[in-house]
Amino acid sequence: VNPLLEEERCKATFNIEKLTYFLEGDQEKTERRRELEKKFYEDEFPNDLIKVPVDYLSHSEIYTEALIKAARIYFEAFNLEDPREVLGIADAYHYEASPLLLHFAMFIPALMGHCNDEQQARWLPDAIELKIIGTYAQTELGHGSYLKGLQTEAIYNDKEKTFTLNSPTLESIKWWPGGLGKTANHAIVQAQLFVDGVHRGLHPFMVQIRDLETHKPLPGIEVGELGPKLGFKAADNGYLKLSSVVIPKSNMLMKNAYIDDNGRYQAKKATDKLNLGTMLFVRVLIIDMMSFNISKAVTIATRYSAVRKQGINPDSKNGVTSELKIIDYAAQRYKLIPCIALSHACKAVFISLMSAFKDVNESMSKRSDYRSIPLLHAMSSGLKALTTDLGASAVEICRRACGGNGFLLASGLPRIFGNTVAACTYEGENTILYLQTARYLYKTVRLVSNHGSSSMESNTKVTLNLKERETSQSIGYLYRVTRPDIGNLGK
Amino acid sequence: REGKIVSDVDGLLRLFSASAYYHCHFAFDQVDCRMRVQGQSFEKAWIECQVDLIKAAKSHLIYYMMIKYWEWVSSGEKYDLNISQVLKRLAYFYFGFIINENKGDFLAVGLDLTSIEQIQDELSTLMVELRNDMIPLVDAFDLHDMVLMSAIGCKDGNVYDRLFNLAKKAPLNQVDPNPSFIKYIKDLTKSKL
After folding, report:
1. Cα–Cα distance between B71 and B63 in angstroms, integer?
2. Which residues of B touch A89 (CB under 8 A)?
């Protein structure tokens, strides 16, 4: 070990190991993670795949290597008592993302969220055992956040009891889903449903896109990979063009809406809120990922700052000039310390939102109480945006804090930046998400200020009563008649 | 001013809430004014006021993040005194840092220049106090070298050995001289053009 780092470690004013337990929740979790890391990183997974340093691999080689790792990791996962344990390990091990990331992060959750019991029994076991590999196709080449603008069509044919799916325009080609390019053989496709010529809005459909034996695209399916990106190079984000693809009626995901035996469209009232629940969960997970990415970047930059020396140490003694560690410059500490704190702050927000998410889920399932969903949705949307914005800035600050060596791919920082800044765009572009939060705040202020005009009435759906809102920690302060007093901090 | 500002967390959280309150009400008034005075539709007014609305959302979210961050830090009190102390110091720094980097937001709600100068002083002091705990703080993230995949951030700190060894493995370094150089440039260096 470099003596400069050893010297730093001796200066600690606290027990490092105990802080690790605190950050992770408890000692048991830390020990289990280390056990798994040893198994996957050191014993069972010798790095024999990498013939040249990873940063010199081509796009195709990165994908191939990620597939080999994914296969080995998920094979091993079935030997674990709780296969979910491996997900964290897999995320970290696939430094350019896994081609199976969307299968586990979105396809399986979407099956759980959108399928009825019968459909879950039909697809979930196969999905968990990787007999089918799926992705979630919503965004199109010409349409993103504005879901009503999506153009992919699903036309119901009651005579045949089938849906015909089409990409009617160039801009309606599905674009971006991870794993779609080369890996997935199934996709949950979001399409505008038409029943008897009546438009019924966006609904999810299970579409098989590749032959399960040959893995070749099925008739009517044109599918491929988008091309190299700033990060996530192994995620094979893809495109999908559907030309008169016929699927059975039973392939519409029917938990929230379905076509009955008489060919009539039926939908549950709370469909929109149930859909929000799935998005909300993913956004909360992104906040935890930000904490993790920032911790990686700041660990690299801080350790480097303790090893790298630059300039003359003003405290040089006995006429011998020595160089100063860059960590001893105030400007460097002003860059790094906030990043350490930000990682903790993101972790705190994640813990709080995950707890709120569990409460809301319980209210929905036990009492059919959906009232808290809009507030939680507004907060999780905005906090995903805030933490990814701050996270991307923090990683870039860390990269710059390492001078020229931070610009080398070997520093790991460009890769972390690519994967972090991507989160500013996926799962809701940040500007759109801030505006979702703003809309909730606007409604809250409007309620208090009583400034409403009649045209606004239809836009305002107060889902919590006034008392509940006042006591809600996150927005209670907005119910004051005057601005909070800042005491002796102001004139 | 008596006492430190950044460690008066209740006072700081009031300051963050005042800023969020101001920006939310300001954005509301902007939308409302366009609708009532200028006769714009809600949708049109909303689009025109997006900059203010985003600012309002950010202020609100930062306030929320600070509340949750402080709750988490406070939970360390029961766990370990030394850990609690360093986490609090770090949180004080972050509160002060946010104010220092976004002075305008807080001046708008009445924060005075003297307080800002005091916060800057306190940040300097905290940077000195936190200096010795910086490596231990990042070590506590306990990130495996395989997770970091970084030549300059590895746990053993042998930065220069790793950088040099990786450079030697570069494909361009496997053949020397490089055939492309011989094919395209070498003759050029001999030409008398």
Report:
1. 13
2. none
